[in-house]
Amino acid sequence: MAAPNTVHSRSHSLLLLQKLLNLRDSASPLTLVLDGLEQPAQPVLDEFMTRAKISKTKVILLSFATVKKPQTVDVMVKAAGRDLRLVAKELAAHYPVFDPTQPREKPSQRAIILIDSLNSLASTAPSSLSHFLSSILTPAVSIVSVYHTDVPILLPPSFNEYEPHPFTILNHLATAILRLSSLPQEIDRQKARNRAVQEPEWGLKEDREGVIIGLKPRAPDQDRGVVVDMELRRKSGRTVTEKFILQRHLLAAGKSGTGRITLLTDHAMFRPAEADRDDAEEPESTFSLGLTEKQRRDREGIVLPYFDAQTDIGAGEGGRILYEMGREDDFDEEEDEI
């Protein structure tokens, strides 16, 4: 049976991710999703959009790479090659109308801005990155942005070498970071760790010449999903980290279309070993390590020498050494008196 503290911690972690995906109570004004070739961010973005539709939140796509507007998006704003001031002005025109009767902390209508690729913005305007993201944020708007970790950033010649890298700025600004990886690949890595062998690599990390072979689908239903490494930064400055599994395929999705979320440690491959063992359980061995009843009685009847030395055995002799000679002992008169 699981301990109450473990159950509480597990429920608390799941509620935090649910709150983040639902964008409830401004859980994270700026969420940074880090993906790669082996695990794209589309399943996580679909989860954000599905939950936004359920809560009647307006979905705005700020497109740097997307050409056609998805069906789950309400408004699509193209930003590739445009002036950022004009883009921010167009975005503001699609924001929900502010209701002065509602508190600013809890507006009645909300909107979510999905940025499909921050790499283009970081390459073209690295110095204006933080200012642009701050200018499009309002109490009623949350940003979910995607950064491709395997796409290099080509900084312009005018970029100051003493300025921090755009990726460093994004990590500093983000109030929540979701690092994505493939569940089948994480299972293969865990199997390698269990066998104490080198972990396998995929994609660019393989250092192979030729065509890059990306993520391959797996047949078993329970091994399909996305591993989400969440880093949530609270208002108090405390950071909450946890790993989850998001499964959005047909057999795992709920009636509302949302995916199934579980802790990574709930999976059979990542479940920790049981720490609570019975005290009477002996380690596995080819011979018995236990004591018989007679051996246990003899052990309990032994009086250790330092107990006898503490008894009153005469004046001035409280610290003498007590020793009983056995048959094998050879008494030597030249030795000190015992």
UniProtKB/TrEMBL annotation:
Q: Does the keyword tRNA processing apply?
A: yes
Q: Does the keyword rRNA-binding apply?
A: no
Residues annotated as signal peptide: none
Name one process (GO BP) from the record: tRNA wobble uridine modification
Question: Where in or outside the cell is it found?
Answer: Cytoplasm; Nucleus
Q: Gene3D superfamilies, per this entry?
A: P-loop containing nucleotide triphosphate hydrolases (3.40.50.300)
Instruction: Kindly state one GO CC term assigned in the UniProt record.
Output: cytosol
Q: What keywords is this UniProt entry annotated with?
A: Cytoplasm, Nucleus, tRNA processing
**Molecular function via GO:** tRNA binding
Which pathway is this protein assigned to? tRNA modification; 5-methoxycarbonylmethyl-2-thiouridine-tRNA biosynthesis
Q: Which domain of life is it from?
A: Eukaryota
Q: What is its main location?
A: cytoplasm
PANTHER family this protein is in?
ELONGATOR COMPLEX PROTEIN 5
Identify its protein family: Belongs to the ELP5 family.
> What protein name does the entry list?
Elongator complex protein 5
Upper lineage is:
Eukaryota, Fungi, Dikarya, Ascomycota, Pezizomycotina
